[in-house]
Fold DUF340 domain-containing protein.
Amino acid sequence: MNVKLAISGIVILSVYALLAWLSTRVKKEPSDVAINLGLVILGGAIGWVVGIFLTPYSAGQKAEFAEYASVIALFASGYLVGKVDAAISHMLKPENLFTPIVGFRLVITFSSFLLGMLVTVVIRYYA
């Protein structure tokens, strides 16, 4: 096994473990832990999918991914934005955004997304 790949995997797993641990510590109510951990998983899963789209194995897969991307973009720009717009607007209001729990959730979701994308790209390129 490639040493750089193993080290990357250990670092990424360590950061995920840290995110999971922090998710159990930052809470107002006991149910916040489940939401926090769910956001870590969601961010990682979305990052995984994006990482796969960024690193196609062949030209045929690249064309197939482009077709999938256009369908997803159509769905996201139409239906999804219309339905999620109110929730995003509410969440991004200054009185909501700058609360510790919302800020923490944005950070763990984005961090988890980046880690999921990174681990997928590293494995698909180097493994």
Q: What stands out?
A: The first helix runs from residue 3 to 25. The chain has five helices and no strands.
